[in-house]
Amino acid sequence: MEIVQFQQHLSRQLPELTADELAELTAAFTLRNIKKRQFIVQPGFVADHRIYVVQGAFRAYVIDPAGIDHTIQFAIEDWWITDVNSFIYRTPAQMFVVALEDSTVFQLDYATEQRLKQTNHRFETLFRLHAERAAAYHQRRLISALTRTAEERYEEFLAKYPTVFQRLPQYVIASYLGMSKEFLSKIRNHGGPKKLN
Amino acid sequence: MEIVQFQQHLSRQLPELTADELAELTAAFTLRNIKKRQFIVQPGFVADHRIYVVQGAFRAYVIDPAGIDHTIQFAIEDWWITDVNSFIYRTPAQMFVVALEDSTVFQLDYATEQRLKQTNHRFETLFRLHAERAAAYHQRRLISALTRTAEERYEEFLAKYPTVFQRLPQYVIASYLGMSKEFLSKIRNHGGPKKLN
DNA sequence: GTGCGAAGATGAACTAGTTCATCAAATGCG
DNA sequence: CGCATTTGATGAACTAGTTCATCTTCGCAC
């Protein structure tokens, strides 16, 4: 069942968690089904939940003044997603987070998370680890955006997430990689000798 | 003295800290003077310290295959700096972190930080907050890099860090903003009616 | 002081990536 | 099924930003 997958995931994050703690932790989350194209975060509203994806796919994106959307993060099974800025500072979100497929998630609301962290040192540790990894992830992404050409970012993506590529529409990947969808299409077809479909 | 400033900073981060805790925490750090141009992190070596800047300025940067450097982060008084990826995953750093001025810092080594976090729930909370804010910072920076033009990023920087601009050489700011130093120079002189010196 | 390296300004030529427009194929859905 | 919407390919014209090269200015070392 979903809860087993989720507890295994949490156990991998922090092996010290006891069975009781895993049970308490997961009980604090709500299992929820989300339909394709449904939004779980929208600009103007505070992102009140942290989401763990059991099954499905999401993307978080912003729309710039010119109306172009930019994917900040995506998430498939076993990943987490929310608008961090909005969630931690309790300010209105700048992002959209939308389901790309019919999905199943565990969600945790802000107040419950605070309670968990206060009552158990190890829960605090779990969220600290989570935040550190998120910081490292965003920093790696920033480095990639600043130091690599469009084609290099595409190759890097293919190497890192080979399965994700088939699964998401190309315009989502283009907007994640910081290039126009037309250019991604050109890279894929002409670009270099490599032409994995 | 430096330690007062540092304790005030920590108190602002987490007001619940008692005087005893502040004392214990700051005692775990080492006060250190660092000369201009000295490196505190270098590629190939694990970043073993987290640095709080008491006085001075630093920048963290990577060098791409073409030899161009890209500033990932800078830090002046009351900011923190290290190579997060290297520090938390204990892998060789990809970055340089260098002093831009003669500086004074408090540094905390990895093992001591682990001990602090284990022994006191509130210290764990402090580092959790720190990591969350770092994640949010890097995410905002990524959004800016993806959604704004060079000129907009420059204006944003001016608005956000007006004092920093005078203090750092222009090529550092250009590499932080993700543009060539020549282009930053052109923006500053021709760009728009605004021409703050 | 003067000589020299580092920082900034400026222009001309160039290019990586965008925009716009059209066409083709795939997918969903009533 | 069959139509409509979404997704992807491709080419031509364009532009934001780069690269390279030259010149000036400024700080500071001896």
From TrEMBL, chains A, B:
<dbReference type="Pfam" id="PF00027">
    <property type="entry name" value="cNMP_binding"/>
</dbReference>
<dbReference type="InterPro" id="IPR014710">
    <property type="entry name" value="RmlC-like_jellyroll"/>
</dbReference>
<protein>
    <submittedName>
        <fullName>Crp/Fnr family transcriptional regulator</fullName>
    </submittedName>
</protein>
<feature type="domain" description="Cyclic nucleotide-binding">
    <location>
        <begin position="13"/>
        <end position="116"/>
    </location>
</feature>
<dbReference type="InterPro" id="IPR018490">
    <property type="entry name" value="cNMP-bd_dom_sf"/>
</dbReference>
<dbReference type="InterPro" id="IPR000595">
    <property type="entry name" value="cNMP-bd_dom"/>
</dbReference>
